[in-house]
Amino acid sequence: MIALLHSRFTLHFKTLLPLLVALLLQEPAWGQGNRKPNKWNLNEHHALSLGARRWGVAFGNPAQYTGIRFGIKDKNANINGLSFTLYSWGDNYQKAVVNGLNFGLFYTSASLVRGISFSPVFNSTNEVTGFSFGTLVNDNRVLNGIGIGGLAMLSIENRGLSMASLGILSDRISGVAITGLFLTAPEKLRGVGISGFKLESDDIKGFMVAPLITSFDHQQHPIHQLKGVSLGLYTRADFIKGIHLSLRTKASENQRGLVMSLVNHSESTNGIQIGLVNKTDHLNGMQVGLINIVKRKYTQQKRYRWMPFFNFSFQKGQGGNPSEKTRQKKLRKDGRARKKQRKKKSKGGK
Known about the structure:
Blueprint: H1 2-25, E1 47-51, E2 55-60, E3 64-73, E4 78-87, E5 97-119, E6 122-134, E7 137-149, E8 152-164, E9 167-179, E10 182-185, E11 188-195, E12 198-201, E13 203-209, E14 212-214, E15 223-231, E16 234-245, E17 248-260, E18 263-294, E19 306-314, H2 324-349
């Protein structure tokens, strides 16, 4: 009896094996039309479906599928459900869309993920709405939700919560960013930024904590504007507004609000300076410290330039002290002029 069953099973297996191989190599109707490839190509839409043609459990690279998909390499697949691949490299993910879970063992990528994107090594997507995680590096062009990188977090537009042990680099951040060493947002940083060593951005609004708070290109120019609350060791910006605590604070143009540091220096102060040494060219407010200096560059008064413990003045912009808005307009105008010059140079180079 057992020998009879064994012979029948062997017969059926030998009959089904060529059929399974043919299905694996066959190109489905929803793939590349009626063209038959000459050889197996991982970039083509081949798949074996356990279920219907467009749903169930698929092995390979279907063009569109609902259910669970297992594959070696992803190429522009549209998956609704769970997608498990070994890697996705190059330009093969430019049109890939996953609604659900996108998992890549070594490298995962997709054009759009609505749900969860995860990789134990390197996670990369054009856009994620949901949760994105990469054990080593998490790279998302646009992040809407939560992004975590074991070592580093990279993006162009970051809207949500970002965390990384070493550093976070994004052109624009709106939300909460927490990192161990470096937090860099060259264009703007909005929300909450916490870094263990350095925080860099040209435009900051929100609550910031870092030992060094500087601009992206701090050797050439300081932060354009710093608004909100900041806590650090060294803070430098053109315009400072809000409450700021540091060992040394420098406002190249204007300071509004409360600043508490060992050494405070600003060109124009509209608010309160508290520290050991307070220095400003023009004061419209109070200074509290051991040494208080007002150069009065824009006024004609000569008294009270140097005062111990306390100094005050409530005279707004006499003698032509430029307002903050006027200075901002001038800076924007200069920026537009520099952009035009760069465009002319690039055209001339072509």
